[in-house]
From TrEMBL:
Identification of the protein by name: 6-phosphogluconolactonase
Pfam families named among the record's database cross-references: Glucosamine_iso
Annotated source species: Halomonas gemina
Gene3D superfamilies associated with the record: 3.40.50.1360
Keyword Hydrolase: yes
Length: 222
């Protein structure tokens, strides 16, 4: 593990994403960026926040969210606010994936409407990946995995036995709607999972496979 190489990777990814947003903003009013939560993107968020952009024309959403309070420790929205929406980047429009409803099933329709109203196709969808091959909240053991892989609804409430909280995820169909797709991962373990994903085709076993043909630009560091 190397903090330096992860920082360099984050800076390279931030520059590539900023450039993609600039290219799209030269021909459209607003550009949409889809980011992932978890721990990997933190240095990327900080690097992107430092990039010069017309942030007031940038929309940001998450690929998925845990159904927790927006200021809760496990909230991806909290992470985005703390690390990405800082300085000039605070002018971006951030659209959270949670509502005041008690469950994601109750909130899913309102979230889907919000999501559908954004500037699709996204400029960039940045995906993360877990050691089990999940991406967004498309986990191999999600009860709604088949639905989330097949539906044309923008967002799906998911229950996943391996995860402590219920979640909401953008559907695979919605995550496909982008000009560019990036996989941002670090560490040898995840590189090995990606190699495994590339050598097979069962999406339900390793859901990241649903995006390998996007094409998916991989940003990896040890
Ligand atoms: O909310 C989340 O957890 C995600 O969006 C998720 O899909 C994440 O990208 C992977 O779990 C990798 O997470 P790490 O970066 O923490 O390894």
């Amino acid at each position: 593990m190397s903090d330096e190489s992860r920082k360099r990777l984050a800076a390279q990814l931030a520059e590539a994403v900023a450039e993609a947003l600039r290219v799209d903003l030269a021909r459209q009013d607003h550009a949409l960026l889809v980011v992932s939560g978890g721990s990997t993107p933190v240095p990327f968020f900080a690097a992107l926040a430092a990039c010069e952009l017309p942030w007031e024309r940038v929309q940001v959403i998450l690929a998925d969210e845990r159904w927790v309070a927006e200021d809760g420790d496990d909230s991806n929205a909290r992470l985005v606010r703390a690390h990405l929406l800082q300085g000039p980047a605070a002018a971006a429009t951030f659209v959270p994936l949670t509502t005041a409803d008690a469950t994601p099933e109750q909130g899913a329709e309102a979230v889907a409407e919000r999501v559908a109203g954004l500037a699709w196709p996204a400029s960039v969808v940045i995906l993360g990946m877990g050691g089990d091959g999940h991406t967004a909240s498309l986990f191999p053991d999600s009860r709604e995995l088949d639905l989330a892989l097949a539906t044309d609804a923008p967002a799906v409430a998911v229950r996943t036995p391996s995860q402590p909280q219920p979640r909401i995820t953008l559907s695979a169909d919605r995550l496909h709607q982008a000009h560019r797709h990036v996989l941002h991962i670090t560490g040898d373990d995840k590189r090995a999972v990606l190699a495994r994903a590339l050598s097979g085709d069962d999406v339900r076993e390793l859901p990241i496979r649903a995006f390998l043909a996007c094409p998916l630009a991989t940003y990896w560091a040890p």
